[in-house]
Design brief:
2 domains; single chain; mainly alpha; 4 helices; 128 residues
Length: 128
């Protein structure tokens, strides 16, 4: 069971992470909407390929940030309704040490390992 101090520390860290991610996301959107002079789409094929690759990378990073923002918001909601810190799969308390390293964790180590093993097995079967 988490103490009030631990919950406050984790919540403060999550809220700061959310602020940082949203700021970085706004910067990425601004960069895409207002490209610099060197980011314009012109030049030879190599320049165009470089431009497209940079834009694709920026979109992937933005999508990754968006997913993490959603996960942080979900975690903050769990803090507010008192369900934070318990495993979604088996219901046991997630150790503070795990939450400190990965505050958005919603599974205990054992359930997370089982999930990853299932995902790996599913990937192998899909390849066949």
């Amino acid at each position: 069971m988490l103490t009030k101090e631990q919950i406050k520390e984790l919540r403060d860290n999550l809220e700061q992470d959310l602020i940082d991610l949203e700021k970085r996301n706004r910067e990425k959107v601004n960069e895409m909407e207002h490209p610099g002079e060197t980011d314009t789409f012109h030049g030879d094929e190599a320049d165009q390929a470089t431009y497209m690759e940079q834009r694709s990378r920026l979109l992937r990073l933005r999508d990754r940030d968006r997913k993490l923002i959603n996960k942080i918001q979900k975690t903050i909601s769990k803090l507010e309704n008192g369900t934070y810190g318990t495993c979604d799969a088996c219901g046991i308390d997630i150790p503070y040490e795990r939450l400190k390293l990965r505050p958005v964790a919603d599974l205990c180590i054992e359930c997370k390992q089982a999930q990853e093993e299932r995902e790996e097995r599913d990937k192998l079967f899909k390849r066949r």
